[in-house]
User: What shape does this take?
Amino acid sequence: MTLKKKVVILTGASSGLGYSLTKLLATEECNLALLARRKNILNGLTASLNESSSKIFTYKCDVGNPEEVKSVFAKIKEQFGKVDIVILNAGISGRKDIKNFSAEAGKEIVNTNLFGIINCVEQVLQDFISRKDGMIVGVSSLADVRGFPKSGFYNASKSAASVLLESMRIELKPYNVKVITIRPGFVRTPMTDKNEFFMPSLMNVDRAAKIILNGIKKEKRIIQFPFLLVISTKLLQWMPDSLFEWLAGRPLPPRKDKVNL
Assistant: This one.
């Protein structure tokens, strides 16, 4: 699939994977609508892409706010005329010890990681179905396989996102609407830089973005990486509950590659 002249919406474009994906997409001659809560960063990013032939607009948007999403998507449709692809990348994490269990923290993570996808899909779905064309790309995680200590809210949000995307993929197939699930492992971004524990197969963000873009162009159903971590999470998924709980309850080794991003 060529992305030339396609209208692509990318959420969470101001940092990490979204930031790197933006730079790659700008070389594909597609038209970009970049969404993030920090519009000033988006404006700086687009200024650095001034030689790109892509038409680029930036929008301040909290994907967890349905009214804000509705308003921004209406502006995008007005400015571009249509939407071809939505890449729903916005996401947050947050490790919480069980002693600091907080409904508010859980709501924030689930609202962004799950309802951020739901809110955005709602704004394009009927257009895609009526045209029998379009692509929905949702960023989940290899962490969707089980409930890891201190990451229950994050794991739950990503598990729900993966199941939702799978369900939509089945239902939308007769309408020629493609649904792609992205399941990255650990990627070196400002979000993962906060982690103090060892992250196996930690991947450079630009390399991860290239894998994602190539997978989108090949219209893969699921884009998951790195290979060794994919296999490891499969083993964890099939592992007896008692063994997983014993392993997961052990202290994590400390991170030794702490860097400033």
